[in-house]
Amino acid sequence: MSGHSKWATIKHAKGLADAKRGKIFTKFIKEISIAARMGGGDPNSNPRLRTVIIKARAANMPKDNIERAIKKGTGEDGATAYEELVYEGYAAGGVAVMVEVLTDNKNRAAADVRNIFNKNGGNLGVAGSVSRMFQRKGTIEYDAEKVSEDEVMEVALEAGADDIVNEDGIITVTTSADAFASVADALNAKGFESLSADVGMVPDMYSPVDADTAVKVAKLINRLEDNDDVQNVYSNVEYPDDFDPEAAE
Length: 249
What we know:
Layout: H1 3-15, H2 21-39, H3 47-58, H4 63-74, E1 83-90, E2 96-103, H5 106-119, E3 123-124, E4 134-143, H6 149-159, E5 163-167, E6 170-176, H7 180-189, E7 196-203, E8 207-208, H8 211-226, E9 230-235, E10 237-238
Parallel strand pairs: 8-10
Antiparallel strand pairs: 1-2, 1-3, 2-9, 4-6, 4-7, 5-6
């Protein structure tokens, strides 16, 4: 399994778990609201908002929820002032971790993130210590049994995708961050139903860990993802093949 496909599959498994669906929708509401506040409520003229809406729809977020989040951001339905923050650090085994935060209380978020790192075998680093190991990319996943790889490849490449990989029953389309929305739109226009669609930080190289270290890394990531201020967590961990990160609670 390639690095990008592995990253996307893990994010899909984590992000779309039914038990966490409500929390995921809450995070999307915040992200949609701030995108609308910064660039306006029209996704056609606000690329950031358009990208978030594509991600939210791929996670089956109801249309009404999306529209209410946009109104919050544009001030039609009340708005909360959120700050965007990024924390960088290391988990057990030297695994690189990036944490994206949207918060209405910077001090609380900083204390919470630091506490989670400290209590789960990690440590925060300085700005730039980890981000240099990642690139922002888009990934769109499809069930290989439900769509044609050749058709997906033809449409995706024509729309500007960087790569298409078919492994373990998952077709993963990789794009630059800028090309994500146009590639997703082109694939959606052909009626292809995605398993997930996301723009995030993809590591240049992965860091394999043994079973014991995998448990420590997964616990740290799970605790971070459970925090209400945390929007996204990215790492370069490569878990053992038989390891389930969601089981490390």
